[in-house]
Write a structure and sequence with these properties.
Helix 2 runs parallel beside helix 9, helix 5 packs across helix 6 and helix 8 packs parallel to helix 9. Helices cover 29% and strands 25% of the residues. The strands form 3 sheets. Strands 4, 14, 15, 16, 17, 18, 19, 20 and 21 form a 9-stranded mixed sheet that branches. Strands 5-6-7-8-9-11-12-13 form an 8-stranded parallel beta barrel. A 3-stranded antiparallel sheet has the order 1-2-3. With 424 residues, the chain is an alpha/beta fold. It folds into 2 domains: 159 residues, Lyase, Ornithine Decarboxylase, Chain A, domain 1, CATH 2.40.37; 249 residues, Alpha-Beta Barrel (TIM Barrel), CATH 3.20.20.10. It contains 12 helices and 21 strands.
């Protein structure tokens, strides 16, 4: 569910007409609904109500990579969520927005020594370590700082998530984690290293999962590994089950499993583990909370269907070009007429295409359209390709709204360059 609804013939974000935002903030512009974010947090928490997770309850660490806007992070911090980060930059963003460092988990295969030191100085809750060499580097950094790093090894269970190949992370050929069969040796090595406190296991097999079976398979393997590690003398106190639960993009496709169904599966599979369970939802929390609002530049005749050329482009919303991803395209002020069209952006690439042969409301130059379910992996993946400024972002809360990231003028991009002495 989201809070983007047609009222009096105009799409609103909560109580604010998107036409008002488009006129005031310009287009393209990302618009985020606070009510939707809060609702999704509540629904996810309720789904986990029956899982066994110790006295502290589940540790929910929002995946910052999905949407790192400070207003989004601050909203989630006030809801009590932690953060799953994969860079020093995401770590600083989360802390700046008010996330408790003790609720931060640092994942990712390429942590540098500087990033490790930064995280240790801030006292984060856990490092999800993805290789033996990473554990050795973290040991050195922790010893040099005179502190101890709490760690879990991310295990690669060699489970096909059944999602797009570019967002699958749990197969043996993927770069993530330590192979399941090498886990015992990795934990034995880590126990011998100074400055490390081995405390848990972690697994994450992919994003936008539409079937619970791969997750259940992976979690079952992790449960067996916990038993093995404890038998080998390791005190396993946490189990990070990652994120990845899919959201509905295309209404013509079956709905992904609900958070409630996911929670029931987790409760059943993890019963008796005697750990604090950790989760890293990202897309599930923010995807439906965002829309990219764009203005039609012109409608151009095509060989078969007309081309609707909008002022948003692949540099603003990369998912269709990168993953052939489907986004619902709605008119902000709907007309009664319909047509079939190709919706494209102005970037000089044939890949700058949002939809081909898409049945949709008929539009004309100057009309506004919304690319829905764009709150995750939208603005965060944007670039300045073709010297286009980064898209502005707006947050709505009831009848209040504010620009939460300004659209920097092209002059700011130009000013960031400098000429070498021989060209001045």
């Amino acid at each position: 569910m989201d809070h983007f609804q047609i009222r009096d013939g105009v799409m609103h974000a909560e109580d604010v007409p998107l036409t008002l935002i488009a006129e005031a903030a310009g287009t393209p512009v990302y618009v985020y609904s606070t009510a939707t974010i809060r609702r999704h947090v509540r629904v996810f928490r309720e789904a986990l109500a029956n899982v066994e997770s110790g006295a502290e309850g589940p540790w929910i660490a929002y995946a910052v990579k999905a949407n790192p806007n400070a207003a989004v992070l601050a909203t989630l911090a006030r809801e009590g969520l932690g953060a799953d980060v994969v860079s020093g930059g995401e770590l600083l963003r989360a802390i700046h927005a008010g996330v408790d460092p003790a609720k931060i988990v640092f994942s990712g295969v390429g942590k540098t020594a500087d990033e490790m030191a930064l995280a240790l100085r801030h006292g984060i809750g856990q490092f999800n370590v993805e290789s033996e060499p990473e554990a050795e580097m973290l040991s050195d950094v922790a010893v040099a700082l005179g502190t101890t790093a709490p760690i879990a090894f991310r295990i690669n269970p060699d489970v096909d998530a059944g999602t797009h190949a570019k967002i699958s992370t749990g197969k043996s050929e993927n770069k993530f984690g330590i192979a399941y069969h090498r886990a015992s040796a990795a934990y034995a090595r880590a126990r011998a290293l100074p400055g490390l406190a081995v405390r848990g296991v972690a697994v994450h097999i992919g994003s936008q999962l539409t079937n619970l079976a791969p997750l259940e398979t992976a979690f079952t393997k992790i449960g067996g590994l916990i038993e093995t590690l404890r038998a080998e003398g390791h005190a396993i106190a946490t189990a990070d089950l990652g994120g990845g639960l899919g959201v509905p993009y295309d209404p013509a496709l079956p709905l992904p499993p609900s958070p409630a169904a996911y929670g029931e599966m987790v409760a059943r599979v993890t019963a008796g583990w005697n750990v604090r369970l950790m989760f890293e939802p990202g897309r599930l929390i923010v995807a439906n909370a965002g829309a990219l609002v764009s203005r039609v530049i012109r409608v151009k005749e095509g060989a078969a269907d007309p081309f609707v050329i909008v002022d948003a482009a692949m540099n603003d919303l990369m998912r269709p070009a990168l993953y052939d991803a489907w986004h619902d395209i709605r008119t902000i002020v709907p007309r009664s007429q319909r047509f079939t069209a190709n919706v494209v952006g102005p970037v000089c690439e044939s890949g700058d295409t949002f939809a081909m042969n898409r049945p949709m409301d008929a539009v004309e130059a100057g009309d506004l359209v919304g690319f829905m379910t764009a709150g995750a992996y939208g603005a965060t993946m944007a670039s300045t390709y073709n010297s286009r400024p980064l898209t502005a972002e707006v947050m709505v809360d009831g009848n209040n709204w504010a620009v939460v990231r300004e659209r920097l003028p092209i002059e700011a991009l130009i000013a960031a360059d400098s000429l070498p002495p021989w060209l001045k």
